[in-house]
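Trying the structure run again after the queue cleared.
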Amino acid sequence: MRVRNLAIAASVAALAAAGLTLPLAGTASAASTLKDDYDGDGYRDLAIGTPGANSVTVTFGSASGVSEGRSVTVTQDTAGVPGVTEAEDEFGENVTSGDVNDDGYADLIVGAPGEKVTGKPSGSVTVIKGGKTGFTGGSHVVNAPADTAGRFGEATTWNDLDTDGAPQLAVISGDNWWYYSGAGEDGRAYGLEVDFLPEGVRLDGMVSGNFKYKDGFGYVLYGERADGGAYTAHMNGGAGDYGYQAELLGEGDDPAATREAATAGDVDGDGYDDLITGNSRDGKGGSVTVRLGGDRAFGAPATYDQDSAGIPGAGEAGDGFGASVAAGDVTGDGLADLAVGAPGETVGTVAGTGSVTLLKSSGSTFTSGKAWHQETAGVPGVAEEGDHFGASVRLKDINRNGKADLATGATGEDIAATRDVGAVWVLRGTSTGLTSSYAASFNGSDFGLGGADAGFGRTLR
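Done. Tokens:
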């Protein structure tokens, strides 16, 4: 099934093949303060990582949302991007952004944990500079430090972690964490001063936020222990003591631990970021846990599943509720709401088609939710077995109306006879929640990424 039978405009396809420039309508201003406004026009842009095709597609935001007609796809074969695309690179496995060179335009930061460089452990991070007409400012690569077993670039952040007024790049690999002065152009990596990570850990993700200090960032690292149990820990500190104040948040079979999904957002409006983690293996069908941030401490974890009051559905084996999570203010009331993906959810009699549940914040609890999937009225497409709608989720205000929009990926979406090409949907936020009116959808083939197992939409930023 094809989500939408839309092709890229010839001019866009030519630009994607030849380089990074995309002429944009309207007047761009080099004064945007948004971390993900790559062209400086004041709208947040949506980046879609497809590591199965070693690519990142950026769809540029506007008052009418996003479309494939205003987009550019970047690979290591694109002019100006260092490296050469190789099957195992996983370019796009992780995507983040920030204004690296302080010119008013956000820059794209892309992890490729499978990248092989002679004489170095696997993995790299590429910084691609944004600009008024798209990505035209050049790029550079940060390779894996020696002190790692590899898979450098599994996750990245761009924050002022040492509160000196200038943001820094932080990166994890499969077994370690580093930060760099600026974007790491000098190549000097600063690691943990106190190594709190357990022997044999396999890190998969990282999220940062003002969890315990309003003027400083903490970092949550998550993945698996050597025995396969979940591992989730938080650390904060400053230059000279990273790792010193580490706190184990959960491990093993603890439902409040995660090996796969975490996000941050202020769900209770107190000025502290709150931590949201997903555990798709918990109980019957998975769960999501909220820890409220606060002065020097997290609150007690509150765990929700599909059998909790006010949350639609019922927990069933294989649902995968909590496999992806995102926080953002959908209704514009000042409180972050939660999007929770359940890519294994059965809809009607269709197994594994997947769904996303939006949980509205009521201050510090979540007792009101609505599920969205391809059988929801107004949502493009048809539910099919193995689509995995909800494999990724992201909440951000793309059309600048003060309300976060939902982007979600279905990495198992088939296009015609080609399996698992993948697709992405965008649903708009309103004062009452999400709406399927003006819903947008596009798939990998719309951007020339239509190969089998591409899994377009694996990563959303």
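The longest strand covers residues 202-213. Worth checking whether this holds up in the mutant runs.
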